[in-house]
Amino acid sequence: MFKFKKGDNIIIISGKNKGKRGIIEKINNKKKKVYIKNINIIKKHIKKNKINKIGKIIFKLSKIDISNISIEDPKLKIITKVGIKYINGKKYRICKKSKTILYDNLLYKKKKIYK
Question: Does residue 108 carry a pLDDT above 70?
């Protein structure tokens, strides 16, 4: 289990984007990679074919290794480690430096539609 979740605020700690801040959009657990909003954007050239009558250039997010990122403390705005604490039988993620609880971002939770 990773201590990163979709919607977490992070800081990149190594690589060409070192020091930049962003929000996790997608996590690939098998490859240990994350996609971060507006960071590590690449150009992809699409060749023309029968479906696409003209060639074009699209911009898409590229993945970053999970070891190159760290959680941003919401209170202190610095890099921190994440711990787990049980409060009244519920499991919460907490920041090690400021002891604040990391709540899940409700904007990034998928809504289930039942038919």
Answer: no
